[in-house]
Amino acid sequence: MSYYDKVFEVTKSIPKGRVSTYGAIADFLALGSARMVGWALNQCHVMTDIPAHRVVNSKGVLSGRLQFVTPTAMQERLEAEGVEIKNHKVQDFKDLFWHPSETLDQRKFGA
Fold first, then answer.
1. What one-character DSSP code corresponds to residue 61?
2. What is the pTM of this model?
3. 55 φ, ψ (degrees, to nearest 5)
């Protein structure tokens, strides 16, 4: 499984109505950096089965929003899942934050 495939699999596991961060995914995979996770997710915005809209920066900001089909698509998808966004930032970020280790086994990913 390639690094991108691992990022995609972790991203698919983020529950609806929750968000994770580039850094949390990178830490969980124990490979690369938050920036590498961002690069991987930039490749999948047209893939409908990978919820890249659920990955934000470490402060809860929709930093990847400009990589979507429209600059508002990321926010619209999150809001459709009940996530409140103000000024391009997830409200109640700490409560909505999901770390991959909550439900995933690192051994599955070779980490």
1. B
2. 0.93
3. -110, 120
Here the tokens at position 91 are 């409200």
Residue 52 burial (10 A CB sphere; 0-12, 13-18, 19+) = buried
89-91-92-98 Cα dihedral, nearest 10 degrees: -50
Residue 20 CA, distance from chain mean position: 5
Q: How far apart are the C-alpha atoms of 74 and 107, rounded to whole Å?
A: 30
The answer to whether the beta carbons of residues 21 and 55 sit under 8 Å apart is yes
Question: Closest Cα to residue 20, out of 80, 84, 102?
Answer: 102
Specify the residue for token string 């995979």.
Answer: 29
pLDDT in tens, 92-102: 999 999 999 99
Query: What's the DSSP call for residue 51?
Result: -
